[in-house]
Amino acid sequence: MARPPKLTTDSKDRKEQRERTENLIEKSKELSDITKTPPKELRGTIAGYAWSRLIPELEKMKFVKAPDKDILVLLCMNIQLYREAFESIKENGIQTKIFKTVVSPTTGEILSKDFQGFKKNTAVDTLTSATTKIESLSNKLGLSPVARASILEKVKSEEPTKKQSVKDLLFGDDEE
Question: What separation in angstroms does the CA of 63 have from each of 35, 80, 141?
Fold first, then answer.
């Protein structure tokens, strides 16, 4: 399988890589920029903090725009789920002991607590799910080298015959 092309504007990288990146940025110019302020449902949360940390990096890339807001919201929410699940695992471990309490039917007194085995901490499943979603959503936003390269490859392979903006590609061109 061929190596995906690199996304870069670095003058030290190859000319065709820079040209592909510049082409993507140029096609994205008509779209509104994504807001720097987290949406109100994320404010004051770990997700809101994640938004504030990601926005400067996304702005540097210049091709993540307002239509990508929902993907970024989902990414930030999953980062919060990931962190909360990790804290639960740190506090409670990956599994908990299960005991069966034997109570006297006449007095209600606890006679014994019998060990039954272990139960998995459900935060482990949450952590696994959030990790998978973070990776997927990060790739959609071009936050990994492979994802950035595949975005460029997609732009290259879907190159329109006439000069067309990303806005036209996404929402249709009214001239036709």
Answer: 13, 25, 9
